[in-house]
Amino acid sequence: ICGTIPHGDPKEIQGIRSGIRHGIREIVSAPQNKDAYSVIFETSASVGCRLTVPPRSEIKPLRLSLRSTAFSYFGKEYKLNLCGRFQITNATVVLETVSMLARNGFSLSEEFIQKGLSLAKIPCKFEILSVSPTIIADSTHSPVAIETVCLSMADFRDRIGECVRLCLPDGNLAEQYVRILSEMGYRVSMTLLLSDRTEIDGITYRFPRKKELIKTALQNLKPNETLLISGPHAFTEDIRY
User: How far apart are CA 20 and CA 18, in angstroms?
Assistant: First the structure.
């Protein structure tokens, strides 16, 4: 099962190529960018490995809300208690994996598949902790994943507004978020960073203690302001808790 390979990561792409050549018989892959897909496709073809990628033409979003997601795939409807358009793509990879298992003698009933998807919970993966005000936790640290988070927020712009308060670990992650959000027309009202020092610089606040960071992050949070907690999983999970 191959997830989305970060753009321009030749080392990871080479790792996939090496794995295929060492005897993998079948791959279910998330949609890839052109370069990654070409490597996976050509390597699979050279060793007779079956490659399945969910066709975008068969994916139809039916409902996107802050509490759940509904979509159809090859005409069948499915429901997720997860938020974010990208979760639909993840779910279709699951569905293709289930089909692959069935081809190899491990079949699941349609009822189990529907129930499994509807009950799935993924903490810190565009997880909505609160709707009013909106608080989102998403563990990520790569530019591609940051863009996915921002695009997921854009689906709910009319409901959650265009003002974002960021809660992150100190480092270049904050700069990437601010740049991408600004390019998409969002306004970053405050950036709160877990740092090794206490410092206030304009709308950027640094705190060495998590308690101070969280207290300030929640203080006077407006209904039309989204608090986005993000960063590596260990940071996001801790702040989420």
Answer: 6
Distances (CA, A) of 228 to 10, 84, 133, 240: 30, 14, 11, 10
**What's the whole-number average pLDDT of the chain?**
93
pLDDT at 74: 96
Positions of E strands within 33-134: 50-52, 59-64, 69-73, 76-80, 127-130
Cβ–Cβ under 8 Å, residues 98 and 108: yes
> Whole-model pTM?
0.87
Please tell me the distance from the alpha carbon of residue 45 to that of residue 47, in angstroms, as a whole number: 6
Distance CA 24, CA 170 (A): 40
- Sheet of 69-73: strand order equals 59-64, 69-73, 76-80
Q: What is the mean pLDDT of residues 206-235?
A: 95
